[in-house]
Design a protein that fits this description.
Length: about 80
């Protein structure tokens, strides 16, 4: 069974260095070649909105990974609750 409508934590790698201010409420870490955006998204709609923003900014997507979902094992959760 899919939990696509549940909050999940994602990690998105982008080619180039980005301004963290472009991605409210998400973690943005850069090295000298790429940027990793990570954080909890409430559902697939929010994920698609973020991907649309990346596309509209003309950025090159390298990877997208779903790390954890709200329906996963409670022992793996961070101390801060995901949204929702």
């Amino acid at each position: 069974m899919s939990d696509a409508g549940s909050p999940a934590r994602y990690e998105i790698s982008i080619d180039g260095i980005l301004n963290p201010a472009w991605f409210d409420d998400l973690e943005v870490d850069s090295d000298d070649r790429q940027t990793v955006i990570s954080g909890w998204l409430t559902d697939q709609s929010e994920l698609h909105g973020l991907l649309t923003k990346i596309r509209d900014l003309g950025l090159c997507l390298i990877t997208l990974r779903r790390l954890e979902s709200r329906t996963g094992d409670r022992e793996r959760w961070p101390t801060a609750e995901p949204p929702g």
